[in-house]
Amino acid sequence: ELRVRVRLPGGQVTEESLQADSGADCVSLELRAADGALVTLTADFRQEVKIFRALILGELERGQSQFQALCFVTRLHRNEIIPSESMAKLRQKNPRTVRQAEEVRGLEHLSMDVAVNFSKAAQLSSHIHNVCAEAREAIYTREEDVKFWLEKGVDGSMFEVLPQGSDLPELQRCRLCPERWKPCICSYSLSIEWYPCMLKYCKSRDAAGRVSSYKCGIRSCQKGYTFDYYVPQKQLCLWDEET
User: Fold this and answer.
1) CA distances from 38 to 35, 43, 56 (A)
2) Which of 102, 69, 54, 71 is CA-nearest to residue 223?
3) H/E stretch holding 148
4) Is 70 among the domain residues?
5) 154 versus 59: which is more confidently predicted?
């Protein structure tokens, strides 16, 4: 496990942990966001799946439970994050250094229009079972990713298309919805502040003048995501309010 100190947008410093399992061909990183939420990203290279989990502190005085868990599952593309065997070799040289990503990748806005059945999700990725255990009623993905996985032979019965704004014209964004028990479209944003997104290669020349390249480091990135998804009642989305 690698622990890295990173600076959040508000200036606070938080610790991020990075783990790689080259046998299972996956990596995971975890950090505590500025609002106290615990955010985890798991990249399953074998299944081409990435899993975001957020454990959001509940507002007890507003009738919420201690924390609320969300899982967002999307397709993992090539070259989004460095391979698991490279991640496993990373060493922390200066543990006190506060890292800032070299590259800020654009904010991705994803419409999560499909619910995933927790009890069947293991064949999409075995990691969903561990990572999303607290979020079993709140695992979301999107139709275009489902199409990709179905072509790979994943069982379609684990997916259920959620109500859309086009089906229900009265469906509002939660932040505009005045009633707490009405269904609405919730929005949740998270950011991975620092992650190794690319390998750097250097060139060397041997005695005969032949040039070869070798891995000589990593490039770090920061990336934010906003997920929109249907909730049966606004009470499940109290952070998304007019501020």
Assistant:
1) 9, 17, 7
2) 102
3) helix 143-151
4) yes
5) 154
